[in-house]
Structure formats: structure tokens, C-alpha cells
Specification:
five-stranded parallel sheet
Length: 581
Amino acid sequence: MKRSLRLCSHFSRTAKRSCPQRQLASIAGTRPFATSLRKLYADVTDTKDNREKVVILGSGWAGYVVARNLDAKKYRVTVVSPRTYFVFTPLLTDTAVGTLEFRNILESVRKAKSDIEFIQGWADDVNFVAKTVDVEPSVLDPAQSHALVQYRDAPAKESMLVPEEEKRINGKIHVKNHVPIFPVKYDRLIVTVGSYSQTFNTPGVRENAYFLKDVGDARKIRKRILELFELCHMPFISDETKKQLLHFCIVGAGPTGMEFAGNLHDLIHEDMSKMHPQFMKFVQITLYDVAPKILPMFDAALAEYASKQYARQKIDIKTSHHVEELRKGPPGMKDAPQKQDQIPPGRVFTLRTKEDGETGCGMCVWSTGLMNNPFVAKALSRARRFPVDSAKITEGRPIDQSNPRQWIIERNEKTGSIIVDDHFQIELSTESASSDKGSESAGRAVMQDVFAIGDCSNIGGMNPPLPATAQVANQQAQYLASAFNKHYSAATGKFDPDSYASSQGFNYNNKGVMTFLGSSKAVLQGPNTDREGAANGLKGFLAYAIWRGAYLTMTLSWRNKFLIPVQWLAVKLFGRHVSRF
């Protein structure tokens, strides 16, 4: 027995001395986390797999669809994303009110029978010459399931402009400011990082508004709605305060804002009215938009129908209204802007507009549009060195590394999104480092191993640009995945960029737009127009039936194709689940 204990002790000491994870643990802080990082780095640098490694940044519509459609026999697919799932965003508003459960619209990236490799982290920087992406783990990041409205507050982001030789320790895992950053190698890189919620720097919106872009946002909204009705049962809450608490403000009269307003109306009048009938007289839903009309992408007749439908549901629509501030505290509170840190959370908010002044509300859902992902500006603004082995000069003379020119990644001047060609290859342009802009060193190039699709990209020369919708991202992802599979060269075992570049570029097929209005009604606008130029469309219950059928068909897994109609039926028969958790 004693001999066995001595042997165990000996092997334990030997393992501790030889285990490289212990060295990493002293850097990263915790042994299990460091061990997983070392294993990740080993996987990243694995040279036994002869397939080309395709790294996809993001797990939204573009990233997830292209990953699941790439042929695993031809490519080794690795997804890098801060969240472990894909969200079926067209039905996100249904989950915010309990019509669907959250998992009904989620698809896990990491699956038991999937060939997709997954790393949960934020892409931090890209080295086009070394073909690596620096990744910061997001496993413990609380922002991973919520809408992002600004660049994440992480000191390590300053390192993105540091020269490469100062950034890593022997090209391996580097820990700076207690944040471990490690490289992931790629052969082909597909950028699908999406976009952030746009706040237009309106005071108080980032801190106090509710957004609707991810499942964490939907959970937060659902909890707040139920919370407000429970607050009204407190005996010390006055009728005036109840009126303010049960005032639901929605900023943005596009499809997302309109659908949430319709879903909120159904929740309140079909379920909450049965449990809180005494509070129905205090309920008010107000929809704000800076534009002169709602649903600007729809035909005027369909938009007018939506307005009348909401008027019958007593949803107040205020167009041409400019939101100036959203703060904690009731209207008229003295020195409220200066005392925001002292006001307890979860009470009344004040929404101030240029036209109406201050109004009290229990929650404000912000759905006004999208802004470019700051990662594009931080990490994809320029190529520090020209990637000679992977970029192709399209204008100007071939260069060597000693040329003084600086290569800039083309981006849209208005939105900041990446400019790509109709094959989604990222374009580079340059001016001479000298003052002579007309010198012969100016040129243009295209990177044959880096692609961008989805909300973070724009096809150059396309006016107007494609809308940032799930439909567009889905079609782009299917095109790119199909092209990768088709232009794979069996002779070389690699993707053939020259064959791909000579093929037909992407062509968007507009299938129309749909919006749910509540009370089993919707509007649907097709891609074609009649002889007078008006868009062909449907409205009412028929449009609602098509809306549900279309989204059920678009659902990506058979599991959710089964669960979604079952949940719809359960809500119809038994009502929504209104427990607050």
C-alpha cells in the first residue's frame, strides 16, 4: 500500500514538472481555463489535417449558414463567435412575449454529429500575412447574448495597433491586462461579424433602453413586462405611477419595432388582461419614429393598412418625432440628469422628444437601425503589410515588401462596412506614402483568401446597397458556400480562387418583405409591381398565415420545425406562460 502511494506521488510530481499547462496557468490565472487554451492552440496548429482550414468569424445568419453548407470532406470549418448559437431573428419578437420559448429559435453551433469546430471568443485582430486571427475568449463575458451598442471596454483592444513582434510571445498565447489572446490560423477567412444596434449617441439610451437583437435581449424584455404588472400590485404605487409604469414606448417603426408592438398588444390583451384586469385602463403602447411614415420599405397602401390596424388596437403611432433623451426617474424630477447614479433602477423612465417634451414610461424598446461593427474599423481598416502570397493586383504594378505604399481595406464612407466585389472578396486600395498621390505606386488589389458577407459588407458599385436583413445574409451565405464546394480542386486539394473569380458573381433574389401586426394580421409585399408601379401585396389574415408558414419553412433544423408549431398550438389552447424568472 505504501509503495503504491509512493508511486502515485512520484508520477504526480513528474506530471507536474512536465505538464506545459502549468506554465500557462501561471499566466492565465486558472488551471482549467489555461488547459483549454493550450488544447485550443494545439488544435489550431494541427498539421495532420490536409484539408484547407476555413475560419468563419460570427455565428449569425451569414456565418452559421455558410458553415453548415460547406463540404466537410473538402474543408476544415472553424467558427469563431462570442456566442455558442445561431438565433432565428425573424421570430425573436415572439420569444420576447412568450409566444415562443427561447430555445425554439436557437440552433447550437457545437453539435454531437457536426464536423464544425467551434471557438467561443471575440475576434480581436487579423494578420493577413501570417494568416492568423487573434481571439479573446468570451466564455465568461456577460455581454455575449445581448445587443451590443458600443465597442467592448477591454484594455487589450489597444494592442491591435501594436506591431506584431511586440504583440505575441513567440507567436503563441499572449496575456495582456489579464486577458488571454491566442492566434487561430486560417487558409481562408470569412468575415461575418454582423452589426451593432444604432443609438445615434442619444443621451441615456445605451444605459436605459431595451434592445431586441439577441436572445438575451428578449429574455430581459419579457422579464421587464411581467415585472411592471407585478409592481402595480404594490399598495404604495399611485395611479399616476401605474400609468407611467404601464406605458410601453417603442422607438423605431420598421419591421422589428412594428412586430414587437403587435406581439406586445397580443400578450397584454390575450393574457395579462385576464390576470390583471384592473390595470388595463393604465396600459398604453406608443410607437415613435423620426421618419414621416411607418414601414418605409413597404408600399404606401400597405403602410396605411398597418397604421389603421394599430389605431384599432389603440397603439399610438407618432411619426416625425425626434428622441432627445432617455433617463431614469419620472418626468419633472428635479436635477434628474445629474443624479442618474443615485436613482434606483427598475422604476419609471422619462423619454423626452423634441416635439412632445417629457413622458413617463416603464420601458423603452429601441429598434432604430444598425451601426457598423467596430471590429471592422479597428482590425480591418488596413493591411499592415501587403499579403503577397494571397492578394492579386488588379490595378497598378506588382510590388515587393520594400514599397512604401500603405494598403487600405476599402470601406463604405457612409456606413463603414467593408467593400467587396460581387464574389465577396475584400478589396484593397493604396496611395503612395509620398506626397505624390499620382505616382505610379498607387494601385488596387483583391484578397483571394479573405471574404466578407452579411451586415458588415457592401458590394461595391451597388446603388442602393442591399438591405441588412436575414434574407440577404442567407442568400449570400448559400452562394458563397456553394461556390467554395464547386470550385474546390481535387488535384491540389484546395479552393481554386482563379476558377471562382471567373464564375458568375452574386445576384440577389428579392423574395419580398413581411411584417406581423398582431391580432392574427400581417402585411406582405412581393418583389414585383403592377402596371401602375404599385407593389403587389397581401394584408390581413391571409398574409399572417403566409408569414407563419414562410418562417416555419425557413427554420434551419427539423427539431425547431417540430417545436415551433407545437408551441404556437399550446399558446392558442392554454395561453402564454407568464412566470417571471
